[in-house]
Amino acid sequence: MIPYGRQFIDKDDIDAVVDVLQSDWLTTGPSVGEFEAALAACVNAKEAVAVSSGTAALHAAMYALKIAPGDEVIVPAMTFAATANCVVYQGATPIFVDVDPETLLIRPEAVEAALTPRTRAVIAVDYSGHPADYDRLRAITAQHGIALVADACHALGGSYKERPVGSLADLSTFSFHPVKHIATGEGGMIVTDDPRLAERMRRFRNHGITTDHRQREKQGSWFYEMVDLGYNYRITDLQCALGLSQLKKLPLFLKQRRNIARAYDEAFAASAHIKPLAVAADVDHAYHLYVIRLQSADLAIDRNGLFGILRQNGIGVNVHYIPVHLHPFYRRQFGTGPGLCPAAETAYGQILSIPMFAAMTAAQTREVIDRLKAAVAENRR
């Protein structure tokens, strides 16, 4: 099976983790700060806070902004559930808005239409690795005095109008799950230029406590105070050492992903039935995912059937995502359902994510192309 995504780990990565295993600090140690500083420099941000997952990063961002019951946060329907869940964790209400049918990115016009006096923030999702339209989103949020958060978990290494993802919003979140651009096993990061927000998130990841163990050890003190209600969202030094090693390879990983995307673009350019998502001219796409839309009006099999055929033939396709407002929890808890975001709902029935990962070979890329084209052709007969 050629998976839709997977990590690439080499000897440098293994050696970095072993070095930490042989050190005095397995968690709350020096590797955490080193990883934070390296990633902040990579995305041109002043502050970075490492946490245990991309979901924890989103939750910390909502906490830092003091999102609370009675507040509303606008989120796109086409995303992973965590983008909306982080709002619910704070007792607030996610307001789902539709996406552009060509890119599946949040529509600024939809954001503007959804604003109410209770709106406190907008979360833009850089779906598949394509940065959202941050200039237009920033203009809206600035005009109304609300926060702009980038769920950039797909887009590390991408850029918008020559500005790196991570420098485009008040807070930007990243994920280091194994299928992402760099892997720490699980792990996440929030970057910001606001030191007050960064400090709130550092306490939040550590139970709401003012200092961690290593800081108290340096001070020769046992004393600490819990000033907020936080969580244990700490990341380990093992993970951060791996992240540091992986980050050094990010330019190579991005180059390889973009080469694969270019091969797919060329292969499907003339197809009437396999349509890649559009890419704006003013972005550098990070290609966490490569998503196609099946123009299936005259096919004898639907997307779900094609999914099964490709899986049976060793192509690890996936679907990203079920629109969040269609999940049973959101239907039950917030009364959402079909018809709320028609572009996202239509796209959901047509999209497939095809294999995309840095270690993918040219032969594997060609196999994906050939098997996909053959499956589509076979099911048009």
In short:
Helices cover 40% and strands 14% of the residues.
Fold and architecture overview:
The protein has 381 residues and is an alpha/beta fold. It has two domains: 11-97 and 105-250, Aspartate Aminotransferase, domain 2, CATH 3.40.640; 251-378, Aspartate Aminotransferase, domain 1 (Alpha-Beta Complex). It has 14 helices and 13 strands. It has helices spanning 11-21, 30-43, 54-64, 82-89, 108-114, 134-144, 195-204, 213-219, 237-248, 250-268, 303-312, 328-334, 342-348, 362-378; strands spanning 47-51, 72-76, 93-97, 119-125, 147-151, 159-160, 163-164, 171-175, 188-192, 274-276, 283-284, 290-294, 351-354. The strands form three sheets. Strands 1-9-8-5-4-2-3 form a seven-stranded mixed beta sheet, with helices on both faces. Strand 6 and strand 7 (163-164) form a beta hairpin. The chain is globular and about 70 Å long.
Secondary structure elements and their pairing?
Elements: H1 11-21, H2 30-43, E1 47-51, H3 54-64, E2 72-76, H4 82-89, E3 93-97, H5 108-114, E4 119-125, H6 134-144, E5 147-151, E6 159-160, E7 163-164, E8 171-175, E9 188-192, H7 195-204, H8 213-219, H9 237-248, H10 250-268, E10 274-276, E11 283-284, E12 290-294, H11 303-312, H12 328-334, H13 342-348, E13 351-354, H14 362-378
Parallel strand pairs: 2-3, 2-4, 4-5, 5-8
Antiparallel strand pairs: 1-9, 6-7, 6-11, 8-9, 10-12, 12-13
Helix pairs in contact: 1-9, 2-9, 3-4, 3-7, 10-14
